[in-house]
Amino acid sequence: MIRYLNSDFLIIGGGVAGLSTAQRLLQQGALVTLLERGEVGQEASWAGGGILSPLCPWNYPDEVTRLTTRGAELFSAWAKELHAVTGIDPEYETSGMVVLPPFDTQEAEQWCAAHRAYSVHQVRATDYNLLAQGDALYLPEVAQVRNPRLLRALRQHVESLGGRVIEQCAVSDIVVENGRVQTLITSSGKCNAQNYIVTAGAWSKEVLGRNALRLDIKPIRGQMLLFKFDVSPLRHIVLQDGLYLIPRRDGHLLVGSTLEDVGFDQRTTREARDMLWQRAQKLLPSLRNMSLVQHWAGLRPASPHNIPTIGRHPQLDNLYLNSGHFRYGVTMAPSSVEILLNEITGAQQPFDVTPYQAGWGA
């Protein structure tokens, strides 16, 4: 079967990067088709916790925090827009985050003082219903979103704007002639458009194939646990040495997450489940009596230093990439789309975006 798609843009990948890119292109009047190898919004974007901040922002390079800070600034209005047009509430909430030791207090305070989007306060962990000794840090501006709801709202909005979504459509080859992509070979046949954008997350390098140049994006598995309380015992996100607890409005509590370099293996493991549960119980003893509601794994699109690659391919005029966001694809989604569309249209960028082209290694 051959599909000749009359589209300005053909987007490969239906996670938060692909859906948000499609949404903004459609709002600018473009004709957009989105291809997804499985089901839209069911990979890393769905599997994450939805914390709209780097876990400890002072531990990341400026290229990461610049993009996450801009994304966080845009998120509230974006969530309200989606709620208004779809009726689906992404549950954006400024819940704040309590950071438990170990941490460098001086480094955290100096970093927050230099970045107006964050403030930090020294607090007592026991004041936050946590079984932990000593001081903690509280970051009141950290927000969260319920990412599965965000993804449902995005898909609905994309389709209501006239975007075409084709699921179970895997790309096997990108046909290039004279410095331009001519067509895609997919499991549904040949697909054509004027421009092509790869937003395939952990699979982006495989989709690009020989056109990936020196791109270094690979899957890193993260496992998560879900519990359900009648009333959440926590009001804030809690973080300790890579472990986080995320309370939702309806009493659900997420516990995550692992960082596992196991290729494209999405299986969950008993070892990870036990480790996460035991660590969480030490902070929140009431978890000992809870039943596990769900245990899942997702594959993050890992890139060196957590810095994504966003923009035009160095050698192919009509091919673009928006991928490699590692742990912060949801947080970075609105800012990544902003700089991608600015490049496509020639509009002024909000900051220097050259670091987000470095991933090609060209």
From TrEMBL:
Coiled coil (residue ranges): none
EC number: 1.4.3.19
Domain of life: Bacteria
Keywords associated with the record: Oxidoreductase, Thiamine biosynthesis
Gene3D superfamilies in alphabetical order: D-Amino Acid Oxidase, subunit A, domain 2, FAD/NAD(P)-binding domain
Residue ranges constituting the FAD dependent oxidoreductase domain according to the UniProt record: 8-336
GO molecular function: glycine oxidase activity
InterPro entries for the chain: FAD-dep_OxRdtase, FAD/NAD-bd_sf, Gly_oxidase_ThiO
Pathway the protein takes part in: Cofactor biosynthesis; thiamine diphosphate biosynthesis
PANTHER family reported for this sequence: GLYCINE OXIDASE, SARCOSINE DEHYDROGENASE-RELATED
Listed name of the protein: Glycine oxidase
Upper classification of the organism: Bacteria, Pseudomonadati, Pseudomonadota, Betaproteobacteria, Nitrosomonadales
Gene: thiO
